[in-house]
Specification:
The structure is a homodimer.
Chain A lengths: L2 H6 L1 H8 L1 H14 L7 H10 L6 H12 L6 H24 L3 E2 L2 E2 L1 H4 L2 H20 L4 H24 L7 H26 L4 H28 L2 H4 L5 H4 L5 H8 L3 H12 L7 H12 L1 H20 L6 H15 L3
Antiparallel strand pairs in A: 1-2
């Protein structure tokens, strides 16, 4: 990939526009993940933080604050807060999923142990909490507390909703918010709040982050059935094999006849899967047009995100956020 | 045990004096541990919360607020906050320790799975965080954020400090604060802060909770070597077998000659333990008087807790807190 191509990505343009702020965020993260007496903490954290995640969430906070004209110092605290919450949830997710790889490296629970992942995750939650209190702004605390509750509630829900054909799109959306959208929307909303934006602007920033996160996750779930391995970096059908109830399947279950219902019950609820079942699943989805409908929903959420931006001041960062919403669904266009 | 005996315990007298407040706390806990869509959350939480823990931490908060003359509603929020943090740490501890029993019942990680314990623990942390923001008091948020960081830092420290003969009393104290004293001191301190107590009173409440927690833990660690199975409800020598560096051993390592050091290195660092090693350990401790010295430290911390109370207004609750400090060390008198 040439440098020019790279410069086209909205994420990279955001990183360039916010370079000074991001340098401050990275410095703050480095300082605050330290622990004088428990070197295990920075070891585990650095393994993850320095693995080169995209730092999308802190950039959302910085962009939101800046495009609302913020000139104070606290957007840096909040951006670091959001990244700490994200890192803590990754550490706990890897324990929950018994994962072996994250960001192309062995997971912390594999390199150290589950204990370290649980406790260092807790430490990062506590650190994020210290960071946000430094802003002295009660409203951002409420927003981040609510997001934290939505995240963990969504994760517990996912534990019980998987393999259950009664899972509907309402529950799916809660799981999606827990996995992705709750922290995206909190990231953008606190940026607006700390900048003293109007209520309408704060609401618009929330809607943008929420819709961007939902679109992002639906695209992921769509590609798990419709994508090419080369595009999505993993094999199609992973969700099928793991018996996850994602949007394409939920839509297919709703309009299933008796025979199809028996099929879904066998492969998803009972987990009794044989060769050819994924092809059958895809054929059923094609018959009901559920992949097409899922794709349309992803595009609609991306448009919702873009529409929300219109309430915000004209600003180069606003344009980049608009491009980001387009980019999230570009993989399915 | 007769009812009269029971009434003698300071803990039970506190429960009686704070009965109305505790009823409100229990009701708030019941309401807030609910989750509309993820029934696994209240299932797991109820298993632990309703197992009949002593609710000592919320009572410390209520007592501190009341004896400083508080008449508002937020001590109830803070007491529930403290209990949620405690319950969350228990859920995560059981995963970390791979425990099978807690409060005489199978642990949640055994009844459900480690995933549920990790995620429901996270949910309770998030809920505690929502509860405390309702007080609209930035200082209590800072105190509880700092306590959360101390707790998880202490737990990580314990992972690495165990089996390491270089662990000194400074590190031991940090582990002890993480295990017990940090939440005790936060519980009493926020009670004073929400009541608008003077700085001196708030500091005294912090010192009381901290010293009470440290005394409590040292007594536990002392009895693990010096106690009778009937008194402590478990066998002596558990810490020895688990190669934990607690105060009696740390003091013995400091004054060990070459032969003793080789012994400690073999049994604690290498974990190469044989029959008779516990008796040898006890003989070495007796030679250096480390159990006696440990006992003296527990008594000194209890006295420190009692002394701090003198800065607080005369009040029946103050007398009960004084009795509580005596009661904590009564097992070693």
């Amino acid at each position: 990939m040439s440098l020019d191509d790279k410069a086209q990505k909205p994420h990279d343009r955001l990183a360039e526009a916010l370079a000074d702020d991001m340098a401050a965020v990275n410095e703050l993260i480095r300082t605050r993940m330290a622990s004088e007496h428990a070197p295990r903490i920075p070891e585990v954290t650095a393994h993850l933080v320095e693995a080169g995640g995209k730092r999308l969430r802190p950039m959302l906070t910085l962009a939101a604050a800046r495009l609302c004209g913020y000139g104070g110092p606290y957007h840096v605290q909040l951006a670091a807060t959001v990244e700490f919450i994200h890192t803590a949830t990754l550490l706990h997710d890897d324990v929950v999923d018994e994962s072996g790889q994250r960001r192309g490296r062995p997971t912390a629970n594999l390199l150290w142990d589950n204990k370290s992942s649980v406790l260092v995750g807790d430490y990062l939650f506590a650190r994020s909490f210290q960071l946000m209190t430094e802003t002295n702004n009660m409203r951002v605390l409420e927003i981040l507390a609510n997001a934290s509750a939505t995240i963990s509630e969504g994760e517990v829900l996912q534990l019980t909703a998987a393999q259950d054909l009664a899972t509907d799109e309402g529950i799916y959306l809660k799981v999606v918010r827990g996995k992705t959208a709750a922290l995206f929307s909190a990231a953008t909303e606190v940026g607006g709040v700390i900048a003293g934006a109007t209520e309408a602007q704060v609401q618009a920033l929330y809607t943008y982050g929420d819709a961007l996160g939902v679109a992002f996750q639906i695209v992921d779930d769509y590609l798990d059935y419709a994508g090419e391995a080369a595009t999505i970096g993993k094999n199609t059908g992973d969700d099928f094999r793991e018996r996850k109830l994602t949007m394409p399947v939920i839509k297919a279950v709703v309009c299933a006849d008796a025979e199809e219902r028996a099929f879904w019950s066998r492969v998803i609820e009972k987990g009794d899967q044989h060769e050819g079942d994924l092809a059958t699943a895809l054929a059923i989805m094609a018959r009901h047009g559920t992949l097409k409908a899922t794709r349309a929903e992803a595009l609609a959420w991306a448009e919702k995100a873009r529409a929300a931006l219109r309430c915000l001041p004209a600003h180069p960062l606003r344009d980049m956020l608009d491009d980001l919403a387009l980019y999230v669904v570009a993989r399915i266009n």
